[in-house]
Amino acid sequence: MSTRKVVSSPNAPTAVGPYSQGIKTDSFIFLAGQIPLVGDTGKFVVGIIKEQTEQVIENIKALLASEGLDLTDVVKTTVFLADMNEFTAMNDVYMKYFSEPYPARSTVQVARLPRDARVEIEVIAQVRN
C-alpha cells in the first residue's frame, strides 16, 4: 500500500482551502496548481504574463525543493491560461526553466483563475529512489 505525505514549503503560498500544497506518494509528488503569489508574503504578482509565470514556477521550485527535488524531476505539467493569446509569452518563460527531456504538458484556456491570475500551473514529479 502506498504512503501519502503532505508536501509544504514556507517559500510557496499556503493552501487557502481544503487542499494541500502537494501530496507525495512512494513514486510521485502531485502539486496543487500554483498561481502568482509570493510564497513568504502571499502578495499577488500584478503584471504581465511573463512576470506571473516566473512567480508560479518559483513556487513550484520551492515545493519541489522541500522534498529534495527540482524541475528535472517533473514528468507532467498542466498550464491553465486566462488567455491563449498569451501562450507564446508564457512558453518563453517556461523554456527558461525546463530543459530536455521536457515534461509532458497540457495547456488549456480557462474562463477564470483564482485572484484573476493570468496563469496557473500544476505538476507531477517523480520521486528519486
Feature tags:
129 residues; 60s Ribosomal Protein L30, Chain: A; 2 helices; globular
Polypeptide structure, described:
The chain is an alpha+beta fold and 129 residues long. The protein has a single domain, classed as 60s Ribosomal Protein L30, Chain: A (2-Layer Sandwich). It is built from two helices and six strands; from the N terminus they run βββαβαββ. It has helices at residues 49-65, 87-97, and strands spanning 5-7, 22-24, 28-34, 74-81, 104-109, 119-126. Strands 1-2-3-6-4-5 form a six-stranded mixed β-sheet, covered by helices on one side. The radius of gyration is 14 Å and the shape is globular.
Q: What does the secondary structure layout of this molecule look like, with pairings?
A:
Blueprint: E1 5-7, E2 22-24, E3 28-34, H1 49-65, E4 74-81, H2 87-97, E5 104-109, E6 119-126
Parallel strand pairs: 4-5
Antiparallel strand pairs: 1-2, 2-3, 3-6, 4-6
Helix pairs in contact: 1-2
